[in-house]
Amino acid sequence: MPRTATKLKVFTFLAVLVAAFNLRSAIVSVGAVLDELVQAFDASGAIAGIITAIPGIAFGIFGVAAVPLAKKIGLSGALTSGMVVGLIGLAIRPWVGDIWAFIFLTGFVVMGIAIANILLPAWIKLHGGKNTVALMTVYTTVLGVGSTLGPLSTLLFNGSDAWRWAIFIWVIPAALQVVIWLPMWWNKKYDFPAQTVTIGSVAKIWTSPTAFFIMLFFGLQSMNAYIQMGWLPKIFIDAGVSPAHASIGLSIVGIMGIVGGITMPFAIARTRNKNLVWFPVVFGISMFLGYVGTWLWPAQGWFLWSFFLGFGGLCFPMAIALIPARTRDPRITASLSGFAQPVGYILAALGPLAVGAIYQALGSWSEILIGLALGTIVLSIVGFRAARNLMVDDELAIPN
């Protein structure tokens, strides 16, 4: 193999690795210091709910805008631009003195992440070649690594401004990804695929029952994920768990995400379709146990409840895998992805926002955890329907 081709392959691998790592670390690190952050700004629980809801809102809004942006400046250009904007937000937001400035700059941070959520898989498919499967494995696995390490930055610093340094430290990997992606953009130039399909001309995707339930399943599991990323450490801390252990608990949830990223695609591929419907039921039961345990015995078994919540979080790789598994025509696959992810993320944003408002009104986590536990029953039922062996193409009656 020519040396230039080898270097490009290595550079492509590094580009995917750093991009995937930055997709979650900057989000979960805020959840780990949310209690200190709220106290420093003298903010209310409702404001804290807004902070935890921002990722879902941004993922929905900018997820819709990602493809049009890529059409104008290319996939590499859109990804790199988002990374630069995110870096600006990461560098400035820890040092502002106003909560609304912090929220505004958090919007910068998640803007770049939202664009990468939608476009990075497409970039891998376009540039991965024979290494596409390996790059996708790197993508899903390292995304889980970022979720795991994000909360642990709180263990590195002490003092009154420790929370500021704990979220500022993630500017280092963010700067590294910009350094790697700027020459990647220069190398790839305008790299949006020449032949595109107008998704809206394919079909009204929301008229497919299976597509609708996949969107609901994606949204409900994302809602639980962002509630946990934003509020789980505070729930543990309020119950008497040390801040260090609370951060470790959130990291356990992230570790399960790594395991799911590696194992779930293989498990789904090797499972008969008629048995696939039981996956979300098992995951829902696990999440139910995690919420009930956190409600009744949070201080005694925080590590066990974190494990159950993390195992239930394997709904995420399953929801992603259902998008290609329940479609045949690539046009329908693209349409389903463009429908399920943005709409699902907007639905997910309502969860952390509601939790913040309810906690502000009641001052207690018991009612919230009971509600979340009951919600896992709905998640299991929706997931059961979404995983049935029915093809979206057939429900839309798309002509060949």
Automatic annotation (TrEMBL):
Keyword Transmembrane helix set for record: yes
The protein's UniProt keywords, in alphabetical order, are: Membrane, Transmembrane, Transmembrane helix
Q: Which GO terms describe its molecular function?
A: transmembrane transporter activity
A GO term from the CC aspect: plasma membrane
Q: How does this protein sit in the membrane?
A: Multi-pass membrane protein
Quote the CDD domains the UniProt record gives: MFS_NIMT_CynX_like
Transmembrane segment boundaries: 45-66, 73-93, 99-120, 132-157, 163-184, 205-227, 247-269, 276-297, 303-323, 343-362, 368-387
Where in the cell?
Answer: Cell membrane
Residues covered by the Major facilitator superfamily (MFS) profile domain: 8-391
What InterPro entries does its record include?
A: MFS, MFS_Cyanate_Porter, MFS_dom, MFS_trans_sf
The protein's matches in Gene3D superfamilies, at most eight in alphabetical order, are given as: MFS general substrate transporter like domains
Q: Is this entry keyworded Transmembrane? A: yes
List the Pfam families hit by this protein, alphabetically: MFS_1 (PF07690)
What PROSITE patterns has UniProt attached to this entry? MFS
Q: What is this protein called?
A: Cyanate permease
